[in-house]
Design brief:
Blueprint lengths: L1 E2 L4 E5 L2 H12 L4 E6 L2 H8 L7 E5 L8 H13 L7 E6 L1 H13 L5 E6 L2 H7 L7 E3 L2 E5 L7 E5 H4 L4 H18 L5 H4 L8 H21 L14 H13 L6 H20 L3 H15 L6 H12 L10 E5 L8 E6 L1 H10 L2
Parallel strand pairs: 2-9, 3-4, 3-5, 5-6, 6-9
Antiparallel strand pairs: 1-2, 7-8, 10-11
Helix pairs in contact: 3-4, 4-5, 5-7, 5-9, 7-9, 7-11, 10-11, 10-13, 11-12, 11-14
């Protein structure tokens, strides 16, 4: 069990037992299940002995993070008679915990939420730390709040059901954390190995990433400064995701992060003295795992337009992002980056 003053994270090979222990402490009057069209059948199987007082199913992936989905979820919660003493169980990946966390935060001004992470990305990042939200007007997480879950359970059984694309999406966040923790990317990412990961090694990686994030969140729970280091790669990634969504080609968040990290590393080399050798190595690793970028000058124009609208900017017309410092493991936040250098860095990874 991992934990801080905000919430605990349980990495469990017995999800029903872990959930039973969590619920026994919460004394809920009702338990409501939120899942997507892919994870709902798994929830019915894995949690078949758990009594739910209602459920709501949303589309799988990023498409569920819409105002319409939020309103549909809230309507089902109201129809189910939930109260502030109820518990909302978010069973799924990062999109489900983002949506459900927001719904739980605003319903009757807040009820308790438990996240059961069923993807690697959710296990190491998205379900932890209380960031919630939905997309709005083409922008990632434009509406949302920071509100901690009551508990997070990482379902190791559910991870065994992941398709390859979802493994790769989780790898993107694992690489991000590796750069901030030790600088050494795990072997199973370096070899793009999806099928033969040792379960003990995987649980160790999840625990290390979750522990790192919990320490950062404990230091800055409301995301006012230090916690911004967790946005490494995200300014570029959100620009890519928004542009690909515009083109009708949604890509998993973690894959976008994985494709963005070499871009950020190149900018860090130019602006912060980050190791040129590390940049080249990271480019090779991410190329093997996530593929190169393939954008024309006009494509990059649109990506930069979306980057200008990123919520991490401060409204002065400049793009700001988190960069890797050449002399420290802790990234530099709020770095103003010229557009010309962003174009050069994207070209480096094309």
């Amino acid at each position: 069990m991992l934990g801080n003053k905000s919430h605990e994270v349980l990495v469990s090979r017995d999800t029903p037992s872990a959930l039973s222990g969590v619920l026994s402490k919460l004394s809920a009057d009702k338990l409501f299940l939120l899942a997507d069209e892919h994870t709902m059948p798994l929830a019915h199987t894995l949690l078949r002995d758990v009594r739910f007082d209602g459920e709501h199913c949303v589309p799988a992936g990023e498409s569920c993070k819409s105002v319409e989905s939020l309103l549909g979820c809230l309507s089902s919660m109201e129809s189910g008679g939930l109260t502030r003493s109820s518990v909302l169980l978010n069973f799924g990946g990062g999109s489900v915990s983002d949506l459900g966390g927001f719904a739980g935060a605003v319903f009757k001004r807040g009820l308790r939420v438990v996240n059961v992470a069923t993807t690697l990305l959710a296990a190491v990042d998205a379900s932890i730390g209380g960031k919630t939200g939905v997309n709005y007007m083409g922008l990632k997480n434009e509406l949302g709040v920071v509100r901690m879950p009551a508990s997070v359970i990482v379902s190791v059984e559910a991870l065994s059901e992941l398709p390859n694309e979802q493994w790769l999406s989780g790898y993107g966040e694992v690489v991000k954390y590796s750069l901030m923790m030790s600088g050494a990317v795990p072997q199973f990412v370096r070899s793009n190995d999806v099928l033969s990961i040792d379960s003990a090694e995987l649980e160790t990686i999840i625990t290390e990433c979750a522990n790192f994030k919990l320490r950062v969140v404990a230091r800055d729970p409301h995301d006012t400064g230090y916690r911004h280091i967790l946005n490494l790669g995200h300014t570029v990634a959100h620009g890519i995701e928004a542009y690909e969504h515009e083109r009708g080609n949604d890509i998993p968040h973690g894959i976008a992060v994985g494709r963005s990290l070499p871009v950020v590393a190149y900018i860090s080399y130019v602006m912060k003295g980050y190791s040129r050798k590390k940049v080249a190595r990271l480019r090779h690793i991410c190329c093997e795992a996530f593929g190169l970028l393939d954008y024309s000058c006009k494509d990059v124009d649109r990506i930069i337009e979306y980057m200008h609208r990123d919520k991490k900017n401060i409204g002065d017309g400049h793009i700001r992002m988190v960069l890797l410092d050449g002399s420290a493991n802790v990234p530099d936040v709020n770095c103003e980056v010229p557009e010309s250098l962003i174009r050069e860095a994207i070209d480096f990874y094309c």
